[in-house]
Every structure is written in structure tokens, then in C-alpha cells.
Amino acid sequence: MPTNIEFYNEMMLPEGTPRPGYEAVAEWLARSKPGDVESLNQQALAMFYRKGVTFTVYSEASNIERVIPFDIIPRIIPAGEWQTLEAGCTQRIRALNMFIHDIYHHQHIIKAGIVPAEEVLVNSCYQPWMNNINLPEPIYAHISGIDLIRHNDGSYYVLEDNLRTPSGVSYMLEGRNISETLLPEVFARQNILPVAHYPQLLHENLVACSGREQPSIVVLTPGRYNSAYYEHAFLAREMGVPLVHGYDLFVEDNFVYIKTVAGRQRVDVIYRRLDDPFLDPLAFRTDSILGVPGLMAAYRAGNVLICNAPGTGVADDKSIYPYVGDMIRFYLSEEPILHNVPTWQCRKPEDLRYVLDHLGELVVKETQGSGGYGMLVGPKATQEEIEAYRLRILEHPAGFIAQPTLALSTCPTYIDEGIAPRHIDLRPFVLSGPDKVRIVPGGLTRVALREGSLVVNSSQGGGVKDTWVVEMGGAS
């Protein structure tokens, strides 16, 4: 990346004074002695370690389980700014849920020529099993994570939508606990909006979407070797519902039951944390031992609610992402509040030519990629890596999109050499219910700990920060 780019500094104004909301943090950093911040980060690491807040690096042969790096210096968002982000995420998820309902029913948006049929109907995430299923409420992405970045012009952009099994909310909640514990005086000086009620909101949302007064809810996990297993157990515990594996459930007469010491008990809602192909070996992958045989038959019969719904992945596929602004206009008759990052679709011949001619300047992603895997960051790549990636694109152009190399904003972060700016993004967590969309204020800030890196994923060396949404005027 060119070195003359000016990055948006989240904490400091260009003239060197703190931005609104950052005054108390700036004062704390100014009076901290060498080693104070390092000591706090070590205490935070120990707290994560004791609680087992870990993730797994699948790209390494040994599948190493690691404690997520946490940086004690918070990212702060003024409440007025947050209201715009909240409105934009709400608008976006409303349109995406309407899109998913539409493509599994009347397909109006396809017939109108706004989204090409081939982008939907042959998409590997499109699930014909979902056609014409009438859910209690037309909601498919009950729990979503919208990834946002701030460019050097100060504006926020949506980097991607996560509608399948979005993770990271446990890092948000545990990070807040660390801030309150290790920075009590700084925290008390701010009027910081709370996030601790997220598990309660999640439970309320699952109940509301079920259409039942007192539904039986379970969290379905693929098991302890999953990278987000800590989060699965954490949310089940916080909601007061069972954490189950596929072998704990069975289907009989199109109803789902859980095996308990007191006998079987009917299950009404499954908050699933495993991917579509593994949900039901009778409907999807026949070799899956993680799912529940007959689950999709029970789902189609309306006897169990699966959150998020199977087939939601078609709406967060990177080949569908460029059309979300059009979805908002089509379904809501509104202009998007938050805009996409400009995107070239390699399936289009003219876009493909541009991308191949500018590979050294662009970020190229697999349409089915996630976790920061399979990307080419052109300005950081060697010529050999660029040429190898060029061959991959030419083999299957429809499998790739490209975007400009964005100037992600920076936030002061503690590293071995002291405090330095590091690039960050933001993932608000969105709960979609029958009557409203709810978002706890802040979400998860991910930070690229490697100097110059724009990849914030924990699997690629990233860490996390607490996100404070601050009401101006001091603590109440």
C-alpha cells in the first residue's frame, strides 16, 4: 500500500487533540507509566485464559487453540454517530431478510432483473429445501454480524454481511467485563452504553420468532473442537438453555426431541452454530455426524425453528453483496444509509479485465471465503503470489470479487514496542425479531495487530478491543 495515505485516526484529531469521547482515555494514557498498559494487557490475557476464551487456527497443521489477543485501549464511538450506524444496519438486515424470503418464494427481485438468476439459483448456498416454507415470521437471519470499516474520508462502509453463524459476541461481552474490571476509574468517567444484556435480548428474540409463549430452546454446537466453541457454551449458559450436540437430539413423527435424564423433551427452537451441509445427513451431506437426521423434515413441517434459517448463506455470499443497495431500494423504497465498498465482480468480463490489469492494487476475495482465508492483498503480495492468484481467477472467474485497498481507520494499540496505530474494523451484532430489530450499542472491534496489516481476523493474527458507545456529557 502506498505510504502517503492518511488514515483516519479514531482517537486524535489532525491537530493533535482528542476526539469527543476520548478525553478520559487520552488523559489516562498520558499519565500511564511505561509498562502500565502492557501489565493491563497481560492481566486481560490471563482473564481470557482462565475463562477459556479461545479460538482455533485451522490453517495450522496442529489446529492450535489460542487465547484471543485483547488490547485494553478501547475504541470509542459517540452515541450520535452510533445512531447512524444502528439505523444503517437495521435498514440493511431488513432488506436482506426480505431478499431471502423472496428468493425462496416468488423471486420478484429476480423477475425484475435486479439480481441475476444465476447468482442465486446456482449459488452453492442456495438451498432448494427452503422453497415455499412459511415460517412463523418471515425472518431468516435472526442473528447477524455486519462488518463495517471507516475509510480515510471519515465515512463508514459495509465490508461484508455475516448471516450464517456469525461469531464474536462472546469477545464483545468478555471484553466489556475486562474494561470494567481493569479500567474502573476511566470507565466510570464516561457514560458508556451497556452491552451485558445481549444474551437476554437474544433469548427474547428467539422466543418471539418461535411464535410460542414458552418454547424449548437449545444451542446446537458441532463440538469443542470448533473455533467458536467457547462462545457456544457461553451463550447457552447465559441464556439458561441446554448446549447440545447432534447426538443429543432425535426426530420422531416430524418433531425434534432432546434426550434428558427425565426422558425425551420436545425442542421448539434450535440456535444452530454449525453450517448448512452438516445440519441433516438425510437432506445435505450424508457423511455428517454432527447434525440430526430428519431435522429438515421437521423444519418443513413447521415443528421446529432453526436460527439462522438454512439457506441464509446465499444472501451473504460475496457475489450477492454488490446488490444489497439495490435490495434496499427495491424492498424498502429507501436509499441506503450505509454504502458498500466499490466491488468488481470477476464473473463480468469487463470487471474481470480490470481486475487482472490491476491485481497489484486490489484486494481479491473468494465469493465463498471467510475468516480472512484465500485473499490476495495486492499491495502486500509478491509478484509470484500475484501471478499464482491470477491463474486461480482465470480458472473460475465467478468465484472471485475484487475491491480497492481501503485505508482502514487506526486506533492506538499496545504492541511490544509500545503504543502504535493499528487498523480496525467493527462488527455490530443485529437481532431481527417480528416487531423490531435490536442492536446492542458497540459490537466487536477487531484489530490487525501486525504492522501495516489490513486483515483483522483472529485466524490471521488479529485481536480485539472493547467498543464504547459514549453519551456525551460525562458519566450519569
Keywords:
476 residues; ATP-dep_Glu-Cys_Ligase-2; Rossmann fold; five-stranded mixed sheet; 14 helices; alpha+beta; six-stranded mixed sheet; Dna Ligase, domain 1; globular; 30% helix
Structural features, described:
It is a single chain. With 476 residues, this protein is an alpha+beta fold. Among the domains are: 216-267 and 269-303, Rossmann fold (3-Layer(aba) Sandwich); 342-405, 2-Layer Sandwich (Dna Ligase, domain 1). It has 14 helices and 24 strands. The strands form six sheets. Strands 3, 6, 19, 20, 23 and 24 form a six-stranded mixed β-sheet that branches. Strands 14-5-4-21-22 form a five-stranded mixed β-sheet. Strand 7, helix 9 and strand 8 (243-244) form a beta-alpha-beta unit.
Distance between the termini: 44 Å
CATH-scheme architecture of the domain at 216-267 and 269-303: 3-Layer(aba) Sandwich
| CATH topology type of the domain at 216-267 and 269-303 | Rossmann fold
The residue ranges in which pLDDT falls below 50 over 5 or more consecutive positions are: none
Q: Mind describing the biggest β-sheet?
A: 6 strands, mixed
- Radius of gyration from the CA trace? 22 Å
> How many strands appear in the DSSP assignment?
24
InterPro entries: ATP-dep_Glu-Cys_Ligase-2 (IPR051680), CP_ATPgrasp_2 (IPR025841), UCP005522 (IPR016450)
Pfam families: CP_ATPgrasp_2 (PF14403)
Domain Circularly permuted ATP-grasp type: 74-448
Protein name: Circularly permuted type 2 ATP-grasp protein
